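In practice, a research group might receive sequence data for several interacting partners and want a quick structural hypothesis before committing to experiments. The following worked case mirrors that situation: the sequences arrive first, and a predicted assembly follows.
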Amino acid sequence: VARSEPALLAWLARAARGLGGEGLGDDTVHLAAQAGLVATVDTQIENVHYRPGTPLERVARRLLAVNLSDLAAAGARPRWALLSVSAPASFDHRRFFRGLLATCRSVGVHLVGGDLARSTVPTLVLTLLGEPAVAGRWLGRRAARPGDALWLGGTVGESAAGQALLALGASWPAGRAPQLPPSWPLRGTLARAARQAIRRHLDPQPQLALGTWLAGQERAATIDVSDGLALDLARLCAASGVGARLEAAALPASPGFAELTSRLERSPRALQLTGGEDYVLLFAVPPEVSVPADHDCRRIGSITKGKRLELVTEEGIEGLPAVGWDHLAR
Amino acid sequence: VARSEPALLAWLARAARGLGGEGLGDDTVHLAAQAGLVATVDTQIENVHYRPGTPLERVARRLLAVNLSDLAAAGARPRWALLSVSAPASFDHRRFFRGLLATCRSVGVHLVGGDLARSTVPTLVLTLLGEPAVAGRWLGRRAARPGDALWLGGTVGESAAGQALLALGASWPAGRAPQLPPSWPLRGTLARAARQAIRRHLDPQPQLALGTWLAGQERAATIDVSDGLALDLARLCAASGVGARLEAAALPASPGFAELTSRLERSPRALQLTGGEDYVLLFAVPPEVSVPADHDCRRIGSITKGKRLELVTEEGIEGLPAVGWDHLAR
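A structural hypothesis for the assembly, expressed as tokens:
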């Protein structure tokens, strides 16, 4: 019985030696060089990844978005999707497919195949294949070097705040603005921050254009933040054999985020570092590289020698534990 | 709410025009010509596709086998697999993966990536990618012409008989022979037929070598029988714009199959025509083509002009309804 994901993945990497099974721990995998493709697979399950009653077009859009974010981090242009839909008789397949097809259209993905089955729990699995966005170039986690600048493609922690609001009764009906929890009569900046957090959770915006720009750079190490900034930074650093120093004060936050987290009785910093499901790119590039302003990125630290992950706060420098979302933890 | 698979797929083909969504009705899909790959996805869900308590290495082997059968029908050589495992804490991931990796090894498939999630219902989704087994050649359903001989790569109906035995309490423990239902003290031919049926259900043998041979023929239309012979024949004929005449007496059956179905109070012919999950290849080739004996195929009829599907029995000729397994029917 697997009680933690890292332990299972380590076992699997040994068991699958020579068979590629180590790829189960990565977000994307390269098919053999002659195929020139990357692939990724992600799952959305009712009551695990989304709450019952979430409009199915949003579930579909999110399913594709989390896969697209993996391809963005690989510097890939998405091309083909295969879908498995397992769901009960009451599941509105057409509504789900309408949302999926609209999103496929908007990013040029062809839904080429799939499988339908009955199940008591709606379980949606999408496999996405992509080609290099820049011919002959792939991005990965291994290229970070000491001295590199560490950048983040957007805010982190908002998605987790949005999830907390949804757990309190917030919703986002189809065709309307996000609705705050009935017991939360918020106004002004706070209300806007809450709606924004709900949007960020339910409608992640995969950074494909940023991935394409990064693929055109001479050297860049990239990962998408899905399991929390601290854990995904640790993965990038481990793959590159480097450490990192993160500046807490540099972490971007939307107006009202601190107030919102205080209303949620959550630490804004904990949400930023470990909240997860942010789907923004975290990347390391040589310090002289200037990132175009239109990608709205923020420099948040540096890559260091050694393997230590450090967080610089107003109180000094502390170790940054590699904790975040474990897909198998109970 | 989708109440039948054909209706949903027809709707989807319209909704997805230009986006490839029609591929959801096919077993395999071709990625764009420049990629030179076919892809397929299949799902195994506890209590839907297999009974609780089935050894997980068998579930894994079957998951890969049903995908391999799709690739065999496409004339493809399997290369890469991506896996999504959604399961409760009690699921023995390592046992499942051991079975999957052993089967991957035996057919040269690289398990390149995947996704793990918690769910109350074990739901296993495998996407399999393949290359042409014969350079530049793919098999499909569209190549049948009037006058072709219709062939079957093995027996049909045994898998459904095996499923019925499992429902009655049969089992196939790891490392042992299949066990008959406790209330069924069978002997001799009947016991052997029952064990064989259980094996056929739990351990399908995808006909990759036959698919490779067919890909080398000048013209062949191929489908794998997964939803029942009658329905899959109807699909092949519809795709080719032809009819077919099936000789009931020519359908291959193992020794003891008729006796076994009689004990199960099931019609042997109904199981053969609509039982499903047989995972043997059904194919049409010009009548002068001689199929090598080592593939153990049987000629079962002919392709005809028009769109009628007919069954020739000892009582005459009757229409063959295109009925079989509907993945969404209740």
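Before designing any experiment, note the following. Chain B touches chain A through 68 residues (CB under 8 Å). The radius of gyration of chain B is 20 Å.
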